[in-house]
Structure formats: C-alpha cells, structure tokens
C-alpha cells in the first residue's frame, strides 16, 4: 500500500500550502485560512511591493480552491477588512487581481480574540477555584 510520502514523491510538483489551525479557528473557515496563508506566503516576493497578483486559475492550481470558493473567501476577508484588492493589467497583457493583506487590522483582531480567550480561561479557572474553595466541586 502506497504511503502519503510515496504519493507526494510521485507528484510532478511538490507544493504544500502551510496554514496554522489558530488562523482557521480565528477566521472560522479553513478555505479563508488557506487563502490568506497563501497570499501571506507570496506577499513581498514580487516586484509590486506587498501586492500579490494571482489569477483565480493560478490560485486554484496552487491551492485547490475553486473559483466559487475563492469568490466567497474574497468576500469574507474583504468584509472583515483583512484584505484589499485591485484589478490591474500585468505586462500590458491580462487583467489580474492583486491582493494585499491588511496586517494591522488582521493582527489587531487576532490579538483581541486571543486576549478574550485568555480572560475567559482565567475567569473559568477562577470560578473553578472558587467552587473548589466553597466545596461545591
């Protein structure tokens, strides 16, 4: 029986999309997590500063996200204020969508959520400790 390593070895391109489960939990959607992680990977690697230009076909080929999934994720991330985009011609040839992650907003919201989780955990621990002191547990 072929292992995952055997199957990967047989692939023409050995590309992996890295994402963090905490980002998935934060965004509430694995497709959004994959997409923003993908854009984050490419951000700063091109000639257009922090703008990443990728066609939906490229994104599909590199992530497996369908055009419908990409449109949905774009809407979610734009509505949250985590990405912005512009449609521009590349090499005077084809109009391609350019993406940019708005790190300030993303980081503020991510940190805010983490802080609320710490407060909730602390409150739950304090409550459990108080119940224990009172002999309720």
Task: Briefly summarize what is shown.
The protein is an alpha+beta fold and 137 residues long.
List keywords for this structure.
extended, 137 residues, 3-stranded antiparallel beta sheet, alpha+beta, Arc Repressor Mutant, subunit A, 59% helix, 6 helices
How are the elements arranged and paired?
Elements: H1 4-10, H2 21-27, H3 30-42, E1 52-53, H4 56-63, H5 67-80, E2 83-90, E3 94-101, H6 103-134
Antiparallel strand pairs: 1-3, 2-3
What do you see in this structure?
- By secondary structure, the protein is an alpha+beta fold.
- It has 2 domains: 15-101, Arc Repressor Mutant, subunit A (Orthogonal Bundle), CATH 1.10.10; 103-137.
- 59% of the residues lie in helices and 13% in strands.
- The protein contains 6 helices and 3 strands.
- It has helices at residues 4-10, 21-27, 30-42, 56-63, 67-80, 103-134; strands at residues 52-53, 83-90, 94-101.
- A 3-stranded antiparallel β-sheet has the order 1-3-2.
- Helix 2 crosses helix 3 (30-42) and helix 3 packs across helix 5 (67-80).
- The protein is extended.
- It starts with a helix and ends with a helix.
